[in-house]
Amino acid sequence: LFESLKSKDLVSWNSMLTGLSRTGLSEDSVKFFSYLRSSNVEVDDYAFSAVLRSCSDLATLELGQQIHGLAAKSSFESNEFVTSSLILMYSKCGVIENARKCFEQISSKRSTVAWNTMILGYAQHGLGQVSLDLFSQMCDRNVKLDHVTFTATLTACSHTGLVQEGLGLLNSMEPVYKIQPRMEHYAAAVDLLGRAGLVNKAKDLIESMPLKPDPIVLKTFLGACRACGEMEMATQVANHLLEMEPEDHFT
């Protein structure tokens, strides 16, 4: 379809590149970016952001650094979309220090997305306390919090064993921050308790949820039951999941 277009404008190029990146066709996305540049099309922030996210998925540090250099030469290094993608790329490639440098370069105009990406980057590196510190800074600086902020911070607590901090965050979402917890927040909290070996507390949390637990929450709980050797409870959860998704082989 793309090749059949007689007139390809920047929007059509970006739509193709972004589509490849978002659908997980990361290698094709990178190749298409090269094709775009060889066609003398002006690369904008959307194109840089998309291809950097593909580099994140592929964990290709060298290529990501090359594209970082191109973005800097094109004066897009401080663009909020590009910066967030750079933070993600360096975090996924294991260079959290470079991710933080990119984050610090936009200190005067950090978006919520950039903060969220940095918090999640530290979470993935097991630096949950640093993630919590960033969350506190967001609050102190009146940066707008969103659902992703809490998912990232709860994930940080989960990966670092900060049980009380994570539960406190979940319980304060609605009364303090006026954000209603979603299924992904409960799943993160179940994972937090499961990793800490608190399977019964995870069960209590699921039963007290104002929402009916979806398969993601139950699969998280199932993994916790199995990891803790609670096989009877695991069997019950697995049977429930089979009723919900009879064709799913996870159970």
From TrEMBL:
This is Putative pentatricopeptide repeat-containing protein. GO terms for molecular function: RNA binding. The keyword Repeat applies. The keyword Metal-binding does not apply. It comes from Noccaea caerulescens. PPR repeats lie at residues 9-43, 111-145. InterPro entries: PPR_At4g14850-like_plant, PPR_rpt, TPR-like_helical_dom_sf. Keywords: Repeat. GO terms for biological process: plant organ development; RNA modification. It comes from the Eukaryota.
